[in-house]
Amino acid sequence: MKKVIVTLVMAVFATAFVSAQKPQVPEFKNTVMVLKADGSLEKTEKQTATLKNKGGNRGGGWGYSFGASGDMEYITLQGGKSPVRLTSGTTFIVKLTDAETDPESAFYLTEVVVAKNTREIYTKKDSGRSVKEKYVKLTYEKVEPGVYKIKTDPLKPETEYGFVPIGKAANGESIVFLFGTN
């Protein structure tokens, strides 16, 4: 009888230990959240953004583009600073649309350009210049099917960042998840 009780108690403690090690999972799909050290979640700043386009250099003013695109595409976001302030070693978590979605094809993390009281994320620069220079390298750890921890390369202090969904929504709007570093 004692062996049964001891085994039962050990099973309860083992279950509690395993569940304490497993982080919470975001309630909603495609929502990037901060994963705190205790396994609980914290929201990032969430803004609905529309992709905008402004004409750029067209190659000399004579109407010739010389094969390069003269447009710039960008997302404008309200406020000069995110109210969510994090440290460089922060871990994020996301629940994707389904278990078969590749996390590398869902979001990218980029530095955000601050312009007065707005923030901008460039998705295409003038004359074909790359926007990827502002991207932050991400690594993913599978928590369960369709749920991933996201770790970043070291982030710059006092910088604004945004997780941007890859691909365009049918209405041209997308939800961007923002934060700044201390």
SSE pattern, N- to C-terminal: HEEEEEEEEEEEEEE
**Computed structural class:** mainly beta
Shape: elongated
Number of helices: 1
Number of strands: 14
What is the first-to-last residue Cα distance? 57 Å
- Uncertain residue ranges: 60-67
Task: Quote the beta fraction.
Answer: 35-45%
Helix content: 10-25%
Mean pLDDT: 85
Main beta-sheet annotation: 9 strands, mixed
Q: Over all CA atoms, what is the radius of gyration?
A: 21 Å
Describe the structure.
The chain has 182 residues and is mainly beta. It is built from 1 helix and 14 strands. Strand 13 and strand 14 form a beta hairpin. Residues 60-67 have low confidence and may be disordered.
Can I get a quick summary?
The chain has 182 residues and is mainly β.
Task: Provide key terms for this protein.
14 strands; about 180 residues; mainly beta; 1 helix; nine-stranded mixed sheet; about 40% strand; five-stranded antiparallel sheet
